[in-house]
Amino acid sequence: MITKSQLLDWIRRYATLIAENANFLTELDAAIGDADHGVNMDRFAEVLQRLPETAQLDCGGLFKMVGMTLLSKVGGVSGPLYGTLFIRLAAASALKEELSVAELEVALSSGLAGIQQRGSAQVGEKTLVDALSPALIALRSALAAELDDCQALNAAAAGAERGMLSTIPLQATKGRASYLGPRSIGHQDPGATSTWLLIRALAETVCQ
Ligand code: ADP
Ligand code: MG
Q1: Which domains does the chain show, CATH number per domain?
Q2: Distance of CA 161 from the midpoint of ligand 2 (Å)
């Protein structure tokens, strides 16, 4: 099981990884977007300020605060998309004090569905969907193979990384990068990169 305290660690670790990689995310966005993805995602730090408010809340309350904060504080298209992901995680973990990895997989899959409803991107359009979708496919396979929690989440992180790298040869057909047409080919997608960091942070938290 993943306890609420581990979920808190996940959120803190993600904020740290984002801060460490903010310049890299912005450089990636400079190549095919408007050079603000690192700045946008670094607003994730706002979530840390509000963690004390969630001390008495269940996992759903924690994720809801994260989602609402991202919706209101993170600019760009990534704010509403990551906000939607966490609001979906909140709905799937209402009244729970801990989550199994299987429950987390269901919650993240609902998050992916929410992102796709909101942004209508499919796999192969060079967006963060290209990292999240293979992460969840790998996680489901790992659960079916009865790997332990750490192994399963490492498999998910490896799936996200493969998916992130798969965006390099793709031409963007959604989001700002799509304005570049074929000139978007040959660059790694910034949002797929921040999504890899999210899943990597989760694996590192559970494996430590
Ligand atoms: P903006 O494009 O508004 O400047 P960001 O730079 O913060 O916002 O985020 C850009 C990232 O958002 C892209 O790299 C891509 O991964 C993701 N993205 C853009 N449009 C979509 C979409 N329709 N669905 C999913 N992800 C998207
Ligand atoms: Mg941008």
Answers
A1: 2-206 (1.25.40.340)
A2: 20
